[in-house]
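Why does residue order matter? Because the sequence determines the fold. Keep that principle in mind as you read this record.
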Amino acid sequence: MATIAIYSLKGGVGKTTLAVNLAWAAATLSARRTLLWDLDPQAASTWLLTDAKPRNDAQSVFNRDVDPARLVRHTGFARLDLLGADASLRGLDLLFHQLDKKKRLAKLLEAIGKDYDRVILDCPPGLTETSEQVIRAADLIVVPVIPSPLAQRAFGEMAAHLGKKARILPIHSMVDRRRRLHADALAAEPDWPVVPMASMVETMAARRAPVGAFAPRSAAASAFAGLWQAIERRLAG
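Structure:
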């Protein structure tokens, strides 16, 4: 089992879009038994993939009140399961601080990961107790970066914080090649994968499904598929 965290210091960079589409790609294109674990109290990934009402018990798996496997939901896609988020995760940072167990998330992943080949973590933004747990647990950290000076500055700070030991895969997210600022950013980092800004990505909210499920021939679907292939290569390296 490998754990891939989708993480950024900043919100609004396409993190949830990446998490949902990469989880779908892992399950569908690579036929991996995949779990998407939504750790963001906004629960956007959870909303996109399930119609179930929030149960306000997502935090309970961390203080051993509930076995994580009991909260796993099946999505409508083969080999893709979801461990959903809800508002209870707003107190997760405080809980981690109170527990004083630096590898609590890693221990949970070790237990639940026996049933999966890939676990995708949709992480809340910011440098928090939760992010520290994620950094310790993840085999690869995928970082979406909007092609702008502020976003690139935030990525530089995050990379310095994580250090050289962390396996990081930065990607250019929400790219509009017509913009000079975006074109310059892509030219400065030509090896970073690129996910375009596309109407099909915006349609996800209406369809409540990954792009590849309803527009498999679109440029966005191709970008997510290519990114997943890059992730698999990094994991194999």
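The longest strand covers residues 168-175.
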